[in-house]
Every structure is written in C-alpha cells, then in structure tokens.
Amino acid sequence: MNTESTTEPVIEANQLDLTFQTNDGPVHALKDVNLSINKGDFVSFIGPSGCGKTTFLRCIAALETPTGGTLTVNGMTPDEARRNRAYGYVFQAAGLYPWRTIAKNIKLPLEIMGYSSAEQDERVSKVLDLVDLNGFGGKFPWQLSGGMQQRASIARALAFDADLLLMDEPFGALDEIVRDHLNEQLLALWARTEKTIGFVTHSIPEAVYLSTKIVVMSPRPGRITDVIDSPLPKERPLDIRDSPEFIEVAHRVREGLRAGHSDD
Amino acid sequence: MQNFATEFNAAMALILNGDAELWAIVLLSLKVSLFAVLISALIGMPLGAALAVARFPGRRVLIVLMNALMGLPPVVVGLLVYLMLSRSGPLGVLELLYTPTAMIIAQVVLVTPIIAALTRQVIEMLAEEYSEQLRSLGVSRLSSVPVLLWDARLALVTALLAGFGRAIAEVGAVIIVGGNINHVTRVMTTTIALETSKGNLALALALGAILIGIAVAVTAMVSTLSLRAEQEGLRHA
Predict the structure, then answer these.
(1) Cβ–Cβ contacts within 10 Å for residue B13, how many?
(2) I need a labelling partner for A45 at 20 to 30 A (CA). Which of A84, A121, B182, B189 fits?
(3) Cα–Cα distance between B201 and B186 in angstroms, integer?
(4) pTM for the whole thing?
C-alpha cells in the first residue's frame, strides 16, 4: 500500500446550499454544508428526519442539484462523476425487481451499460460472493429474507466496480439482530474492497460502530453540527460497543444531536 | 329455423371435411393479419417505448394523438390507403392495390397505434419503477429501452394479441384495398359479408365459427397473460 501519495478528497463540499421551492415557501434542505471525505473513509450521516442527510447523499449522486456552493466528486462535478460510474447507490428499500431473479437484478446495471454476457456472469458471481449470497442467484427476491434482499441490493451497487458506495438507510427496515449481522458483514466488505462509503442512518450505535467519520446533522435548515473522527480501531468486533471509547463517541453524537434540536 | 339448422350442419361439414376453399381463406386471413401485426410490432413497440421514456416538448400531444388513433374507423383507413395506392395516387406505381400486400398495409395503419399506445403505457409504468436506479447509473433514458422492452415482454404479448384481434376481425379496410377477389384477396371477414348477401349461409357460418374461435382464443390468452403479469407484480407487495 502506498500511504505517502497525497490524497485528494473523494468528496468535497464547500458552502453547499440546496433550497426547495414549495407551495409553502422555500425549504432550506441544506445550508452552508462544508465537508471533505477522503478515499477509504467510512462516513455516516446521522440526524433526525429533515436534516438533509439523504438530500446530501443524493447531491453527491447527482440525483439532486444544489442551489449554491460547490460540490466535487473525484474532482469532477457530481454529474460527470456519475457518468464515469463513480458510485454505486443502495436505496432505502432494497428496490429489487420481483420479476427478475437475484442474479438478473444484479445484472440490470450491467445490461444497460452493455457488458458482454460472459462478463455479466463473472461479475455477478464475484459480488454474490462478496455479500455472502453464493447459490442464491437463481432465486427471486420474495424467496429471500429482508436481510438477504438488502445484501443483494448492495451486490447490485457493487457490480460495476465503483469506488464509492452510497447507502441511504439500507438497514433501516430490518430488526436489530439482522442489522448487527449486516453491520459486521458490511465492515468486512469495506475492509476487503477498500471502498469509500457514505452511509445515511438514524441509529447512533450503527453510525459509531461502522464509521471512521461521523457527520451529525440538524434540521431547519439542514446543516452539519458536528464532524467526529472516530478513535476506534479499524478492526471492530461487535462487543467493541461496550468499550469506553465507543460509549464516549456515542455520547458525543447524542450531544450533537441534542444541540441541533430546535425544540418543537 | 329448419333453414338455419340445415345451413349450420352444412357449415360444420365444411369445417370438418377440410373444405379446401374454406381453409385457403382462413389461411390467407391469418397470413395477412400476422404479417400486419409483426410489422406493427416492429414499428409500434420501439415507438411506444421511446415515447414512454423520452422527454421533449410536444410529447403529451403525441401521446394523445396516438391514443386517439387507436380508434380509427377501418373504412376510413381503407379509403386513405386506397387513395395512396390507386393508379393516380402517390404510391400508384407500386401497383399494390387489390393485393394481399395492400391489405397488410391497411392493417398496419390500424394496428400500429394500438401496439404503440399499449406499449407506451406498459413501459412508462416500468420505467417509473426503474427510474431512481436508472438515474443513479447515469445512462441516457433511451439506452434503457431494450432492457425495459425485455422486462415487459409478458405485458407486451398482450398488446400484440390485442392488435391481432383488431386486425383479424376487421372488414372495412381490407375490403376496400383488397377488393375481395376470389382466391387472391378474399379473407374471412370479407367472405362472410359477401356470402351472406349472396345467401350462401353455410360458408359464411363456417367462417364465422372459425373467426369466433380465433377471437375467443386470443381474448382468453390476453386475460390469462394479464392475470399472470398482475400476479407477478402483486407478489412484490
């Protein structure tokens, strides 16, 4: 590993603003957001609903267009980065299509991008392996548990080798035990693939357990109230959540959330 | 009533004995309409899919127009195609009038809007489902058309069958541009019209029975397929 190379940030936001015009007047979804994310970071965005965490992720993905400030992804505009296949996106609901098998769901981006069918097969088996779903390619989504569906959805986002993985509350709908298990697997996957990950969540333990950097956000207007660089080691067994360091970080996140909470 | 029973028995005999004239007419009908549906599909499906995903000014107007064309009166289509193909018409040099080709052309005009409009509906719904995923891939909307068409194949067969049902049962257009010439352009519907007016009810009844059989079979296939497509969609919920 070459650790000396100067690392250009993967994502750089400067005074980013996004105002939606609604019938009830303008809504400040994002205001004055400054953030830089480095290669290999695991960044969590945490905050109550309406704080702009998903909106910010969607701006990175060029699914929303900021109304002010600058945002670069790999040094390009988000739209250019998207066309260069910079990221894979995991949506809130697994978003698998019931008329396609798991393998065919993973192939969807590859089909549209025009990969040869041999290459498609090869990639599908590679990513199914990464998310531990070997042998499930021929199943239909409804034959899989919720956790397995979400893993398949992650596999689809990994299929075309984007270095950046954007995940919008991927485990929000799953129960605690399944979520723990998926969190562990996600860390293992992150260690193996060395991807940069942007992860939206509203669970404090999840954010602290997964991240190297935690971005705490507040609503009205959507803004960043705290950025915490995690002191936790890269190797994280589940019981690290009982360690004093973990509890301290969780406490700081909670404080940040409380400070930004305009009482209403 | 006595008369009807005799005619009916004669009709059944025609069908069961494999009357050569009868089956030649059935065969020509099938050939003309299947060709027409095939050509309409090649034009209508990509057109409908493109209209479903592309965004341009005037798109709404085009969609309304296409839906309106689904209800074209066959006789008027026959008249227009006749004017195009007649000796003095712009395509007169091709000498297609009163040939099966002319009948195919007329049916293509009738069926293409049906297939295009139904395809547009189906693909637009599917594209809506795929929308976020496709946007996150940064591909142009049109480049997703082949995948969308393939994924909607079950529903699209329904569109084809609907088009075929329209083509095979239609009489007004083919009788004008085909001319109902014996052994050349005489199809089931035109024969029924002619033979009934001549009082030859046996042949008309026999063809009518076959035509109804085809119509019922097509409708049954349409509803089975839509039911299956619906259930596959429901299993998601």
Answers:
(1) 12
(2) A84
(3) 16
(4) 0.80
Pick the CATH number of A1-86+163-264 from 2.40.50.100, 3.40.50.1390, 3.40.50.2300, 3.40.50.300: 3.40.50.300
- In sequence order, the 6+-apart residues with CB closer than 8 A to the CB of B29 are B168, B187, B188, B189
Q: Kindly tell me the burial class for residue A60, based on how many C-beta atoms sit within 10 Å of its own C-beta (0-12, 13-18, 19 or more).
A: buried
CB contact under 8 A, A109 and B130: no
Give residues 112 to 131 of B whose Cβ lies within 8 Å of A: 129-130
Cβ pairs A/B, distance under 8 A? 48
Residue A263 has pLDDT above 80, yes or no: no
Q: Which of B138, B144, B233 sits opposite A83 (nearest CB)?
A: B138
User: Do residue B151 and residue A99 have CB atoms under 8 angstroms apart?
Assistant: yes
pLDDT beneath 50: ranges in chain B = 1, 236-237
SS3 A106: helix
Query: Tell me, what's the ipTM?
Result: 0.78
Our separate counts of H helices and E strands in chain B read 10, 0
- CB under 8 Å to A164, separation ≥6 — which residues? A10, A11, A60, A73, A74, A86, A87, A88, A195, A196, A197, A198
Q: Which of A5-9, A168-172, A198-202, B218-222 has the lowest mean pLDDT?
A: A5-9
